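Re: the 105-residue chain
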Amino acid sequence: MYKLCVYIPESHLETVKGALFAAGAGRIGDYDSCCWQVLGAGQFRPLEGSQPFIGQTGAVERVAEYRVEMVCADELVDAALAALRGAHPYEEPAFDLWKLDGRCG
């Protein structure tokens, strides 16, 4: 079992979550579509050669983003990451993926 944490702009929150859930992430026992989310502020600066969805090359940008966390079974991680990259509007979505202790989930 893994825990996936991804940062999603407010405008694409439900689209990205829906893609992850459709790929099988967010399932705990007899429940699906499970996640935890909180609104915060993301910051980044697009560098030369980037194609930013938001902001301008060379300028620091601050954006309202949700931090969304959910679990994902080992065998579904590749599909979940493909779904994340396919649905997320950013060229380089920011996410963390942690292997959980076998007693979790």
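The domain at 2-99 is CATH 3.30.70.120 (Alpha-Beta Plaits).
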